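name: query_chain
kind: protein
chains: 1
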Amino acid sequence: MKRLEDKLGLIGYGYWGKILHSNIEDDVVIYDPVSSIGHSTEIYNCNKVFVATPATTHFSVVKDLLSRGISVFCEKPLTLHSKECSVLYDLARTNKTNLFVDWIFTFNDAVNFIKRQYQSAEYGGIRNITMNRLNSGPERKDVSAKWDLASHDVSILQYIFEESPIQIDWKTYKRNPNSFVSDTCVGILQYNGFDATLNSSWVYGRKNRECVFEFDAGFLVWDDSTNSLEFNGEKINFPTTDSPLKNCINTFISGEFDQQQLTMSVTEILEHGE
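structure:
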């Protein structure tokens, strides 16, 4: 919940902006230049603003807000270039504001269970990982499937393992010739002792959100579609809290977080080879 002195704003009222709005449990000033909702001057009177504009506009929108001393919650990806991320974090530090990116799966209870199992070594070490984030739509025009879908899985890997891959290989494709950007990608990230294969597409034909973590002791399977876990075929019951998005929102409003290293590492991995 917000503090009494907080005034919240939201820029962008498309698909994700509407989802954010429905999950913010306080009054929020809305400004959407596309549909002519609200006005920018109202946003500048806020001290914490949620940004849900196209990814290609994030840098300019977030920079403007931080320059005015306004803390920002930004939809992922923060920007498409790590150098721009550094500029924004430096600006936030200079102006004593907070910059939050909605790496929503770092607030997912199943992902945090996997992280605890890895840290405890209860299942032994990691041997291999396969992550599928495959959908039939919705297609985006501003960023590719790598930046839209694979970014989630890269953020999960960086959050769990807290180390950078030693080798990165991305292959991007246009399976639909009418797509505005590459709609499919395969990434192979080689870490110290294991590889992670990432399959991402929004023209797959059916939804597949299954991620397989191969440990020494067996296979831990997370189905993001149902947020369920199985180990060697047996269902795992794990503690659950609030929805990941609400946890994101509340963490941003609290001001108690440090995401710079995560955001920088994810962005550097995604921009590799571009």
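note: The two ends are 40 Å apart (CA to CA).
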